[in-house]
Write the C-alpha cells for this entry.
Amino acid sequence: MTSIADIEATELDQIKPKGFWRGVWSRFRKRRLAFSGLIIITFIYMLGILAPVIQTHDYRETDLRNTQQGPSAEHWLGTDRAGRDLYTRVVWGIQTTVIITVTSFITGSLLLGVSIGLVAGYFRGWIDAVIMRVGEVISVFPDILLIILLAATLRPRIVEFARNIEDSTGISGLVSSGIVDYFVIGVALLPLSWFGMMRLVRGQVLVMREAEYVEAARAMGTSTPRILFRHILPNVVSPVIVSVSFGIGAIALSEVVLSFFGLGVQPPRPSLGVMIGDVTARGGASVSVLRDHPEQLLSPIIVVWLLIFCWNIVGDALNDVLNPRAR
Amino acid sequence: MLAYIVRRLLWTPVLLALAAFFVFMMGTWAPGDPAELRLGNRATPERIERERERLGLDDPFPVRYVLYVADALRGDFGESYHYQGKPVLEIIAPKLWVSLQLNLAALIVAVAVGLPLGFYAAKKQGTGKDPAIVITMLILYAMPVFFTAPFLILFFAVNLHWVPAAGWGGFFSSQIVLPALTIGIPGAAVFVRHMRASTLEVIGQEYVRTARAKGMSNFVVNYRHVARNALLPILTIMGFTLAGMFGGSLIVELIYGIPGAGRLSLDAIFQRDFPVLTAFVLLGAAMLVLANLLIDIAYTIVDPRIRLQ
Amino acid sequence: MRITIFGMVMSLLLIAAVACSGHSDAPSQDTAPPTSTPPAARATQPAIAPDLKDSQYNEPVAGSGGPQQGGIFNTLWSDPPTLDPHLVTDGTSYGIVIEVFSGLVRLGTNPSNPFEPDLAESWQVLEDGTVYEFKLRNDLKFSNGDPVTAQDFKWSLERAAHPDTSSTVAEEFLGDIVGIHDIVEGNATNAEGIEVVDERTLRLTIDAPKAYFIAKLTYPTAFVLNRNNLESMGRDWVDEPVSTGPFTLKEYRIGQRIRLARNDNFWDRPAYLDEVVFNLAGGVAMAMYENDEIDVTGVGLADLERVQDPTEELNKDLVEVPPNFAVSYVGFNINEAPFDDANFRRALNHAVDKQLIADQVFSNLVKPAYGIIPPGFPGFSADIQGLEFDPDLAQDLLAQSAYADAGSRPRIVLTVPGTGGSPGLTTEVVADMWRQNLGIEIEIQQVEWATYIQDLHRGRLQAWSGLSWQADYPDPQTFIDVLFRSTSAINYGGYNNQEVDDFVVAAQTEQDATKRVQYYNDAEQIVVSDAAWLPLWWGVDSKALIKPWVQDYTFSSLTVSKFKDVWLDK
C-alpha cells in the first residue's frame, strides 16, 4: 500500500534563525512517544554497532550438540538449527541493517537525491526534464521487483569484478568482508531511495529559487554553487529529515526482503532477512517455526518490527515539529 | 488541460519503450542463459546453441529490442522462454487478474477498517481513544508480513479451521480472507491516518462551522460535510494503491500460495524469462501512468482551482 | 528410470518453496530453477522421498469392502514447464505427464523387474538384442475413443524426434533407434528403425544391443500421442490433449491448478478417483494439510519433532517414505588449486563429521554418505571404504598436502545456489567444521540458480555445494559413469582418472551382471579414496503425512503413475 508518509511539500519560511533547531529539539522531546522511539532506535543501532563487543559467541560458530535450544543463560535467545547463538546473530544482523540503512541513506538519499534535486530544481529546463523523465521510467517499475532484478543480475558481475581486483592487486578480503554485498544492496536499493527524495528537494528548490532573498543574492552576483548551498540547501533540510526518517524503515525492510530471497548479504554473515528466510525455509515452514520455535522467528522479526514502527513515529513527530504549520 | 493530457499520452509510449529497453539491457547483461536453464544440465553446447538460435537470443541486443518493440506494437509480446511456447499475454493476464482481485479485496478491508476508524479517532481528538487508535494502527502498519501471514494462518486456519490456509479460489472464496487481511490491515493504517488528518482539517473549516451555526443536526454535519470532503484525498490513495499493486503483494502471494503477478514476475526474474518480465513491466507501467493521469484529471474536475500545466 | 532428466536435485526448496518440505509426494527430483513451487529439493531438507522397496502404503482399512469409486484427491505440486510428453525434461512435468499419457512400457514398483507392460502387452527381444518387437493390447483406445495402433506409435516417435518439436531429450532417449538421429538432425522424417508390422505389432531396431533400451522407453519422450489431436489443434493441442493414461487433463491454469479427470477409455481398470487436483500455487503445506486442504504432504524438518510426538493427532497420519536414490555432495574442481591436491581434498573429507550433521541438523532424515551409490540401489556396496570423520588424520593429510601453509593457499570460494531454500545452513556447518578442525577459512558465495547453473556448466566454480544427484534409472551407471568418467558432461569437477574410465568402459559391455557391478564398485572406490567429491549424505528416509482416508497411495522412489490405484475411504 502507499507509504504512510505523505509529506506535503510545504513552503518554508526563510532561513531559520539560530534557535530554530533548539526549538525543534525541545518540541520533539516533549513528544514522549516519538522520543522513546528515538531512544529505541538509538539503542538498536548501538547494538548493531557494538556487535563485535557485545556478542557472546562467534556468529559462525556452530554447535551441533546444542541445536534448537530455547533461551538460556548460555544462549540468551536460544540457538538455531545449526546450534548458532541467536542473540549473537541478531546483533550482527542489526549491524547489517545499520550499515545498509546508513550507506543507502548517504548514497541514495543524500548524495543522489538531494544533489540531483538541487540541480534539477535550480536549473530547470532540459536538465530538469531529463532527470524527471529518467526518474519516471525508474518509478514505473514495481519497487521490490526492481530491487530484486537489480540484485539478482548485478551481483555476479560486481562480485566477479571485485575478485578480479583482488587478484590483480593482491588485496584480499574485499568480497569476504561483505563490502561488495553492501555495495550491491546499496545499488539495488537506489531506485527506492533517490527519486522520492530528489522530487521533494526539487519541489522545494522550485519554490525557493523564486524567493526574494535568492533573487537578491543572484542580483548581487553571488555564484550559483554558493546560492545553492548557502541559501537554498539549508531550507530543504527539514523536509529531507522528515523524508529520510520515513524512508529508512522502508530501506531496512527491503534489505530484509532481499536477504530473505538469498540476494542480500552472503552467508555466514547474518542479516535479519537471512535469519527469517532460513528458519522459515523461505516462508514454507513459517507456521511450524512460529508454533514450535517461536524465538527463532520472532527474534529477528521483532527487531524489524520495532525499527519500522519507531522510524515511523519519529518521522511523524519530526514532520509536525519541523513544519508547525502543517498538522 | 487537454494539452496536458495529450502531452502525457504522447510521452507514455516513450516511457514504456525506455522501460522495456532497461529490462532488455538487464536481460542481456545478466548472467544466466534462458536456453541453458530450459535445457538443463545434460544439454550439449551445440544443443544449447541451437536453442538460443530458436529463441532468437543470438541476435545482437539492439536488433532484438527493435524486433520486440515492433511486435509489441502489434500486441504480440512474444513467447515465454520457460513455459514452452506459451504466448506471454496468455500467461500474464490471468495472474494480473488474480492480483487485481486480491488487492481489491485488501483495499476493501483497508477502507472498511481505516475510514471509520480514522473518522472516529478525529472526532475523539483530545481523548485517550485517539492516540490509542493511532498508535495501534502504527504498530499494525509496521508489522512485518513474515509474522502476520504465519500468525493468521496458525490462528484462523490451523487452530480454528475457519478459513483455508492457502490457495486461490477467486474473489468470492474463503481463501481470499487471510491474504486480504494480511495486506489490508497495514493498509488500513494508511487510511486511518489520512482520514483522521483530513477530518480534522475539514472540521475546522468555515463551512462546517457555518453548517453547525445554521443549526444542522450533528449527524448531517458529520456525514454530509465532514466525511464527504475528507474523502477526496483518500480517493487518490486508493488509485495509487491499485495501480501500485504490481509486485506489491509478492511475499503474501508466496506464503499463501496465490498465483498472482508478484510470484510470476519473481519467477520470471529467476528463470530469466525476459519476455514475460518485459511484458509485465510494460503493463505495470502503463497502468501506473494511466492511474496517475486519471487521478490528475479527477482532481481538476473535483476542484476547479487545480489546473494542470 | 530417469526421473529427472537432469537428475539433479537442487538442494533447495526453491524460492517459492513455500512448501518447505514440501510437497506431497513431490517430485523430489525437481531440477527446476526457482519455479514457483518447488516441491522438492531435498538435499538439505529432505522432505519426502519416494521409494522402491516399500511400494505401497496400506492403511489398515477402516470399514470393510473394497475400493470405493469417486472423490477428489488434492495435492501440492509446482507448475510444470510443459505438459507435452515429448518435451518433458524435469520431474515436475514428469509427475503429471505420466498420469495422463502413456507408452509401450512403464515403470513399476517391483525393484527386481521395474518395467511393466503398459500399452504393449508383451515384447520380444530379437536378433541378439537389437530388435524389439512389441505386441499392443487388444482394443486400445485414446481418451476420445480413437483406436491406438502401431502406426500411432511410429508417428509419435518420429514426431518426438522432429526438429520442429524441439524436444531436448529425443536424441537421448530415442537416439538408439536406427534413423532417429537423422530426424533429429533434420535430414529425414522417417526412421527406418521403426516398423509397423501390423495394426498391433511394432518393431524397433536399435543400433547395438543395449541392456536398458527398454528403460528408456518408459520416459515420456516415447509416449504415444494422437495425430489428429495435434494436427487439428496446432500448438494449443496440449491444452486439451487426447491421451492414453489413466487420467485426462481437465483443466490447466498456469500457476494455479491442474485438474485431472478419470479416463474411462483407459485400457486397464479405470481409476477410482473422479479427479486429482494439483495445486500449483504453493502455500504452507503443513498448514494446508492440517486444514484438510491437501491429502498428502512431506514433513519438513521444522515439523518433524511435532509429528513424531505420539501424543500428536498428526502422528497417526505419519508414514515412512523409504529411500530416494540421491546423493548430496560438495563438488571440487579438480583442476584448480587447492583442489588439485588429493591430500588436501582428503583432509577436507576427514574433517567433516557427517554423522553429527545427519543426527543434529537433519534429525536423521539423511544417512551420511561414505560412498557414491546409495544403499538399496543396484550396485550399492557396503565394502566401499569411505573417508570417515577423523580430525587428526585430516590434519596430517593437510600437513602433507601442498597447501599446508595458509599463506600458500589460494582463496577458496564455495558456491551455493542461493535463491530459494536455505542450502546455506548445510554449507555453513561444513565450512565451520573445516574451520574448527583444519583452520581452513573459506568464502561462501550464494548466487541465484540461473547464474549457478551457468557457472557450473562452464566449469567456473572452484567448489560447489547445494546439489545432489538423483538416480535416473536403477543402474549404477547413472552414478559412476555419468558423474566421474572423464568425458562425461556432468563431470563438473573435471575428475580424470584413467583407471576409472577403464572400469566404466569395461562395465558398459560386460554381460555378466555381478562382474559389471564389480567394475562400478572398483571405480567407485577409486573415486572415493581420491576424494573427488565430499559426499555428504544419501537422502534415505523421510516422512510424509497422508490422510487416513487415502487408500493405496504408492510412495515410490522412481516416480510412477500412481493415482490410478488410489481410492478414498470417506
In short: The radius of gyration of chain C is 24 Å. The first helix of chain C runs from residue 91 to 100. Confidence is low (pLDDT under 50) at residues 1-63 of chain C.
